[in-house]
Amino acid sequence: MVEHTTVVHGITRNKPHRGGWTEHEPTGRAVVRCTCGLDSGIVAETQAVQIADDHRRTAAEARVVTA
To answer: Region annotation Disordered: residue ranges (predicted)?
Structure first.
C-alpha cells in the first residue's frame, strides 16, 4: 500500500550580514504539499499545520472505509 506523504514547508527570508554570512528569518508563512497532489499555496504557518493534520486525518479515514 502506498501511503501519502504530507509535508509542511516553512518559508524563510534571507537576511545578509557583514562578513558574508546569512541569517534565515521565519516569515510565519508555509506551504503544505502532499504526494497525492495537494498544494495549499502560501498560507499562515498555523493554518498550514491545520491543513496538514486535516488532510492526514481525511486520508486515514478514507483508507479505513475502503479497506
So the answer is: 1-24
pTM listed for this prediction: 0.73
Torsion of Cα atoms, 59 then 50 then 31 then 24, to 10°? -140
Query: Following DSSP, what letter does each residue of 44-62 receive, concatenated?
Result: EHHHHHHHHHHHHHHHHHH
Half-sphere exposure (CA, 13 Å, Cβ side) for 39?
Answer: 2
- Cβ-proximal residues to 24 (8 Å cutoff; 6+ apart), any chain: 12, 13, 14, 15
User: What is the side-by-side order of every strand in the sheet holding 6-16?
Assistant: 6-16, 22-34, 43-44
Contact of 4 with 35, CB cutoff 8 Å: yes
Kindly state the cell numbers that stand for 54.
486535516
